[in-house]
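Narrative of activities, Objective 1.

The group set out to show that a structural description can be obtained from nothing but a protein's sequence at a throughput compatible with the screening campaign. Below is one input-output pair from the validation batch, recorded exactly as produced.
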Amino acid sequence: MDLNHLFLFLVVVSTLFVLVRSVRGAGALPWIAALLVLAITGFAYLADRKFAGWIALTAWLVILFLPALINNRATRRRLAAAGYEQRREKPLTRAVAVVMILNVLMFLLEIAQGGSTNPDTLHRLGELEPATIWINCEYWRLLTALFLHYGVLHLCVNLYALSVIGPGLERAIGSLRFTFCYVIGGLGSSVGVVLLRAIRATGADHLVGASGCVMGLVGVWAGMLLRDRHAPLAWHRLRNILLIVALQTAFDLSTPQISMAAHLSGLATGIFLGLWIPPKRLDP
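Output recorded for this entry:
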């Protein structure tokens, strides 16, 4: 995974999001800042594509992120001075923390066994290899590949996505159901890749990573919102989910090393789960 490419994609997408929101009523300063970041990113891309992502990230941090952070802290101080206390939930829930720890432990095992980018190490530890699964019936690879990662950047991206998406879903459906959805979503992703590879709909021969599980969790959210679409704010939240899916798809298409088949298979599995799994509040 190319870090420069990743930064460039994230900066452009997040800045466009800020631009759209600011044009719809957030004041003049945000959209001016967003346009400035996009302009710097465009010039950097034309001047030197190898460092455009790093230049764009620097501009984004200085022009958009830091001012927003300062403004947010000032707002919190004003609310606190006025007597309003904001409820703060724990950033990580139990099952999410356990899953993140398991991924980190497996990554450390990869390093101890020869390196997280070593093909032999990944093969021994259980990367997803459709041909090996079909020929040698090594079905355990459908699960083990979900806890392996190719390099520290790959691990960090998936852990961050899990920390953003996971806690809210776990609070909504409970730890046991969350764990079930995480594993089944990932297995659905693996099975989908194997089946699509068999009919040559994808060229993926070696896959690792928890992104199929993460997209499964996104699918669970989408399925729950579709099922309860008449609830307040359901369509608003569903639009946010669709935005996440669209961004992930765009990133998959622009990055050949990423398996869109795995992500879409995990998403479809998650949607199916979300349509029938009950929320936590219905537990006896």
